[in-house]
Specification:
This protein is of the alpha/beta class. The chain contains 12 helices and 16 strands. Helix 10 links the parallel strand 9 and strand 10.
């Protein structure tokens, strides 16, 4: 059922006042779930993602979060940015921990809300680091979480009444922070100016990662009248979207990522003001196959951030090959959350080539039609592919999630191709010293009819093995 959650919600409608509920999006298809999600993908690209961004390539980025967390200085960041540029990344993103002067942001218990540069970490200021990155041929991005505040901050000292709260109840901290009350226009202006001033003072910033790491507790407002406290749920949302729009209108050329503790803000209403979203803080490649499969039901790949992270993974402790991690992350907007200096020579060579390869196929991934073939929820292998609308090019992905001795796998069939066209098979991302999973079929041509009805044997061997195949019309 669609509609407003009634729990704890009531709205006092004044005479002559108009109340509009959020819009709902419905779709129907005779082609099953794949057809319905194709409708939703088209809807997002035509009506949600803004103008020139609808089909514009997303930059390959490196985010410093899992590489350094809060422990960084100018030397570390600049070295990381240079290493990212050498790998072929187009954008370096400075994550949490760059701000707070009286209450330095050295962990997550202080500084949130005080959007001034931490001079101990960045003595030359943010502008210097932005320039150093651009001088080294890599664009610069910044992390913000402007809707939140730590009690240990100058902002909270000055405005304790600005947080969502209920009289007589102690604050409930999550990630040691509280939520600012965006039903209050004064708070909205503060949040807007926090982001606007950073971008105004540093016009070379090309990207903003806008985070939100907790939900509302103790819902109440010191701004709203006593008889309108239940309005907080609607007024907060209105205030937030108002801020999003104001920032976007002020900075139309900046690329914005919508992040919320991983997956907490996947909605079409917010996506109107952002180019892409962060599906989950879980960057484990095996888990991401499942996460991205689910996300793809409603959101097109051009809006889905997919990052290659370290191994063992920081969330699950799982060890997976670099090839597997890249092959999974190449399903959407490719990024990295790792430390390049820890990579060996083969890994560096592979990563450089994989990024070049991705840049040559991302147009297919971003603008092609998605066809799901084998679900990761129904077996040990999974596959899917993107096909350009004119059927001239396609990219196919296959992953082995778990291997069993003696298991015999049938040839993998493709979808969405033109039966009468011939396609050249080219396997991508072959790791140095490894054989092609497609064997003798690599480099050969087959009809679309053969590929869709007979398929190709793809030699995936062992847990976390994978193959990416480009098909190009002859």
């Amino acid at each position: 059922a669609a509609g407003i959650q009634p729990e704890g919600f009531a709205w006092t409608l004044a005479p002559g006042e108009r109340f509009e509920t959020p819009e709902a999006v419905l779709t129907f298809s005779r082609a099953g779930k794949n057809g319905m999600s194709a409708n939703l993908h088209a809807f997002v690209q035509e009506h949600i993602v803004r103008g020139k961004w609808a089909k514009k390539d997303r930059p390959v980025l490196l985010n410093n979060w899992e590489a350094t967390y809060f422990d960084f200085n100018e030397r570390k960041l600049l070295s990381l940015a240079k290493d990212a540029a050498k790998l072929g990344a187009e954008l370096f993103v400075l994550d949490d921990g760059w701000f707070g002067q009286k209450h330095p942001r050295n962990n997550d218990d202080a500084g949130l809300g005080d959007w001034v540069v931490n001079k101990e970490k960045l003595p030359n200021g943010l502008g210097w680091l932005v320039k150093q990155c651009t001088d080294n041929d890599i664009k610069f991005g910044i992390w913000v979480e402007p809707e939140m505040v730590n009690p240990q901050s100058e902002l909270f000292d000055k405005h304790p009444d600005w947080v969502i709260q209920q009289p007589g109840r102690e604050h409930i901290l999550f990630r040691r922070q509280l939520v600012l009350d965006l039903s209050n226009p004064e708070v909205q202006e503060f949040v807007y100016k926090s982001v606007h001033d950073i971008l105004k003072d540093n016009p070379q910033i090309a990207f903003v990662k806008w985070d939100c790491n907790r939900a509302v507790t103790n819902p109440g407002s010191t701004y709203l009248p006593a008889d309108e406290q239940s309005h907080i749920w609607i007024e907060y949302g209105r205030g937030l979207l108002n801020v999003f729009k104001k920032v976007r209108d002020s900075h139309p050329d900046v690329h914005f990522m919508l992040c919320s503790g991983g997956g907490g803000r996947l909605d079409y209403g917010s996506l109107r003001y952002f180019e892409e979203y962060w599906p989950s803080d879980n960057t484990d490649a095996l888990q991401r196959i499942l996460i991205q499969w689910g996300n793809s039901q409603f959101f097109p790949s051009i809006a889905m951030c997919c990052h290659v992270s370290a191994s063992p993974n920081h969330q699950t402790g799982r060890t997976t090959p670099l090839k597997f991690r890249f092959d999974v992350a190449m399903q959407g907007a490719l990024g990295m959350d790792l430390q390049p200096s820890t990579m060996n020579e083969k890994e560096v060579i592979f990563a450089k080539e994989a990024i070049k390869t991705y840049e040559s196929i991302r147009n297919i991934v971003f603008t092609g039609d998605l066809y799901r073939i084998l679900s990761p929820y129904e077996g040990n292998r999974t596959s899917m592919m993107y096909v350009l609308p004119d059927k001239s090019r396609a990219v196919f992905y296959a992953y082995q999630l778990k291997s069993h001795i003696g298991e015999v796998s049938a040839p993998m069939r493709f979808k969405g191709l033109s039966p009468d066209k011939k396609y050249n098979v080219k396997e991508l991302n072959i790791y140095p010293g490894s054989r092609a999973a497609t064997g003798s079929a690599n480099g050969q041509s087959f009809s679309g009819d053969f590929l869709m009805n007979q398929g190709l044997p793809i030699g995936l061997s062992g847990d976390y093995s994978s193959a990416v195949i480009e098909l190009e019309q002859q």
